[in-house]
Amino acid sequence: MNEIKPEKWRAPSNIALVKYWGKHGVQLPMNPSISFTLDKAYTETEVLFLPDGERNIDFLFEGKEKHGFLPKLQQFLVRIEPYCPWLSRYSLEISTSNSFPHSSGIASSASGMAALSLCITAFEAKMEGTLHDLNKASTLARLGSGSACRSLRGGFNLWGACPDVSPSSDEYAVNLAQVHPDFLELQDTILLVDKGEKKVSSSLGHKLMDGHPYAGQRFLQAKSNTSNLLKILKMGDFMALAELMEQEALALHAMMMTSSPHFMLFMPSSIAIIRRVMELRAEGLHISFTVDAGANIHLIYPKVFSTEIMEIVQHELLVYCHAGAYLCDRVGQGPIDLNT
Ligand code: PMV
């Protein structure tokens, strides 16, 4: 009898420059979004597919059973069933770990859902003798967590139908080939202002956009920022990128501050960092920030300014970080097949 081998993949997280906030249908975005894939923040997942017809799921997170994650996993498996009907005849033994701390504010759902989806689509391709379909992996990942669909390839990825890019789709993300080489070396230093649990879950956050008084304008703004960002990415104009990226991050928070119920996710330290970054850029330094639905600040800057900016982090910005914690990341190359 053939030994059943597990499927094993590493998938990175990503950070959005144009933000996805608001969805419809089954995990379809109200506007296109663009992110870059991270390098050092990733999830490694191993799945053993047992064809026993039982549909049991064993889930280990960092070696320990994690029951809290099972409902999300069950929902994911139900959602992907139309795409992978064969899965219902299998029990799954899933074992997963992250390269970054749980409370770091990095989207572990993005890397986690991307890694799990890759295990499923790679196993399917081997079983059916077909090519591994990364668009399908991205579609499955989207059904687990929207932004996860942008974690299937390295560099910059666009999720959402967009007239300027063909093909592009609301169902899965596509890789952006026309990116200036300097941007493929962008750095992301994540200042961990708050190490607590998320104060607003993404699912609640997206719902807050239903009936939000500014939703229509926000979706138009994101569409126009997507078109502009595509041009900026080609040109490699960092200062233009900085303006657009900061407007996007602040717009995301403005939506949360003006929804019902409303949320203020910035901490005083987040605002102190943001103000300092804006000052430094006004003085001519190539530095910028983005933020997800939390208080931690991602400092984004070109590699050539790394030494100068890390000195500023050490001397001026670490005081704002919880226990002086920060993570250094950069644009990454995308998932890695760990089966070889
Ligand atoms: O993928 P979700 O449902 O967790 O939503 C992510 C939303 C943001 O991280 C705030 C923005 C984005 O585009 O990644």
Strand fraction: 15-25%
Which descriptor suits the 3D outline? globular
CATH topology of the largest domain: Ribosomal Protein S5, domain 2
Can you tell me the number of structural domains?
2
Low-confidence sequence ranges:
none
Mean pLDDT: 96
Question: What is the string of SSEs from the N terminus onward?
Answer: EEEEEEHEHHEEEHHHHEEHEE
Distance between the termini: 21 Å
Catalogue the ligands: (3R)-3-hydroxy-3-methyl-5-(phosphonooxy)pentanoic acid
The number of E-state strands comes to: 14
Please summarize the sheet with the most strands.
8 strands, mixed
Q: List the total number of helices.
A: 8
What's the assembly state of these chains? single chain
Look at the structure and give the CATH class of the largest domain: Alpha Beta
Fill in the keyword field for this structure.
340 residues; alpha+beta; Ribosomal Protein S5, domain 2; Alpha-Beta Plaits; eight-stranded mixed sheet; four-stranded antiparallel sheet; 8 helices; 34% helix; 22% strand; binds (3R)-3-hydroxy-3-methyl-5-(phosphonooxy)pentanoic acid
What does it look like?
With 340 residues, the protein is of the alpha+beta class. It folds into two domains: 7-179, 2-Layer Sandwich (Ribosomal Protein S5, domain 2); 182-330, Alpha-Beta Plaits. 34% of the residues lie in helices and 22% in strands. It has eight helices and 14 strands. The protein has helices at residues 70-80, 108-128, 134-144, 202-207, 215-235, 238-257, 268-282, 306-317, and strands at 7-18, 23-24, 28-29, 33-50, 57-61, 64-65, 91-98, 156-159, 173-175, 187-191, 288-290, 297-301, 326-330, 336-337. The longest helix has 21 residues, at 108-128. It is globular. It starts with 6 loop residues before the first strand and ends with a strand. The mean pLDDT is 96. Residues 16, 19-21, 33, 107, 109, 145-147, 202, 252, 292-293 line the site of (3R)-3-hydroxy-3-methyl-5-(phosphonooxy)pentanoic acid. (3R)-3-hydroxy-3-methyl-5-(phosphonooxy)pentanoic acid is lined by residues 16, 19-21, 33, 107, 109, 145-147, 202, 252, 292-293.
